[in-house]
Amino acid sequence: MHVIEFKDEFDEDTGICSICGADTNLTGWNEEKGLSRFECESCGAIFIYDEDYNKTIVKGEKRNWEKFMTENMTFPFNGVIAEAQGNIFSEEKGPINYGDKVIVKKVVGEDDLYGVIVEIKLGKKSYDFPLCDIAALDEKSANYKILDNYRVWFANCQ
Ligand SMILES: [Zn+2]
What is the mean pLDDT, run by run of 10 residues, along the chain of 158 residues? Predict the structure, then answer.
């Protein structure tokens, strides 16, 4: 019988880090046991997936996003509302709409459903608003990448 061996050859494969939302890279593969190992360049987490895509976190632990954002993002910063708000079938518009430019002032808490809540300023008024619906305006800022990763994490891993 002819046996096919794969050895070290595998396709470039990426996944989402369930700790921080950044891209993870496939760094190892065990053909015999059907295990693949992914590492996150951003936070250093290591995951092992089995043949059935069950994931085991080998390194890294669940992030306290409220604390992390408070410590790692720079406030205030300019943001833009990046998700449609409210009921799309309703004629009524809320005070905050998709595409509005806002100033994100600080983290004010965390909600079970909406995640990290921030205080934003739109015009002369301040509101509490979910951070997952906001993108940073300056694409070159550290805030932009941190927030982008958080939004990917929020949409996929929460
Ligand atoms: Zn990560």
Answer: 53 80 90 91 93 91 96 98 74 82 97 96 96 97 96 90
CA 89 – ligand 1 centroid, Å: 37
Q: How far is the CA of 40 from the centre of ligand 1 (A)?
A: 5
The CATH number of whichever domain residue 102 belongs to comes to: 2.30.30
Question: Where in the sequence is the domain holding 34, given as residue range(s)?
Answer: 14-59
How remote is the CA of residue 101 from the centroid of ligand 1, in Å? Answer: 29
Distance 85 CA to ligand 1 centre (A): 28
Residues 49 and 69 in one domain: no
pTM of the entire predicted model: 0.83
Distance from the alpha carbon of residue 64 to the mean position of ligand 1, in angstroms: 13
Q: CA 140, CA 76: separation in Å to the nearest integer? A: 16
